[in-house]
Amino acid sequence: MSMAEGDTLISVDYEIFGKVQGVFFRKYTQAEGKKLGLVGWVQNTDQGTVQGRLQGPTSKVRHMQEWLETKGSPKSHIDRASFHNEKVIVKLDYADFQIVK
After folding, report:
1. Which uninterrupted H or E stretch holds 35?
2. Is 84 exposed, middle or buried (0-12, 13-18, 19+ CB in 10 A)?
3. Model's pTM, two decimal places?
4. Which residues are catalytic?
5. What region holds the Acylphosphatase-like domain (predicted)?
6. pLDDT digit string (tens) for 46-93?
7. Which of 26, 29, 30, 86 is the most exposed place for a label (fewest CB within 10 A)?
């Protein structure tokens, strides 16, 4: 991946499956997103998954995708991560990374 490509802003939606509710997954996701300088949101679903959207430079989003797939919060157990609706964007749609209730 070239440097310029790594700086391209992208938006991607995600859904995380496994033991991801009641284990501070959203809090850790928000903290990791902020640490990487990403914006977007995260929320629990009625299906027991966690979903949200990531926006930021491609290289940082890729890092966050890997974190969501492999790490998560200390007490979580991730079965799989699904990413969809990936697209290049001109500007960020959010000011920060929020937990949606």
Report:
1. helix 25-35
2. exposed
3. 0.94
4. 26, 44
5. 11-101
6. 999 999 999 999 999 999 999 999 999 999 999 999 999 999 999 999
7. 86
